[in-house]
Every structure is written in C-alpha cells, then in structure tokens.
C-alpha cells in the first residue's frame, strides 16, 4: 500500500489512485482540535468522493479522522510491535 502526500483537491486523490491502478481508497485527514466527529463538510466531501469513485470503479472504503489520541495509540501499537509484543497489548 502506497502512502501519498496530502492532496489539496479531490482530483488529486483520484489522480494518484488512477496512476497506481488502485481499485479502492481510504481517505484520512486530521482534526487538530481532537474532535473525532465528522463535520458537515467532511460528510459532503466523503459523499462527493464516493460518488466520483463509482464512475471510475474506485471504491472509497473509509474516511478516517486522525486526532492526537489516535496518533498516540498508533505510536503505542508500533512500540509494542517493535518490542515483539502481541496485538492484544495495543490498548494496555
């Protein structure tokens, strides 16, 4: 799975997907405020991208909101995995 730089427009999201012959996308963006609830703008963008993807046969699988809490959990999981721990220790 290729991680790409943040896109500024919906067109750029699909440009990368088409160049890499992707069949699906997972959208991710951050909310520095820590609010995990999607805004109305987030919902509209997700719907717009999902609709556009249907025309290109590229499925939008999810739209993840990244916050500092999620960032900390990901770092903790990485530490556990690097130390040879089991996935169950992720939330310990």
UniProtKB/TrEMBL annotation:
One of its GO terms (biological process) is proteolysis. Residues 1-81 form the MPN domain. The keyword Hydrolase applies. Transmembrane segments: none annotated. InterPro entries: MPN, RadC_JAB, UPF0758, UPF0758_CS. One of its GO terms (molecular function) is metallopeptidase activity. It holds the Pfam family RadC. Signal peptide: none annotated. This is MPN domain-containing protein. Keywords: Hydrolase, Metal-binding, Metalloprotease, Protease, Zinc. PROSITE patterns: MPN, UPF0758.
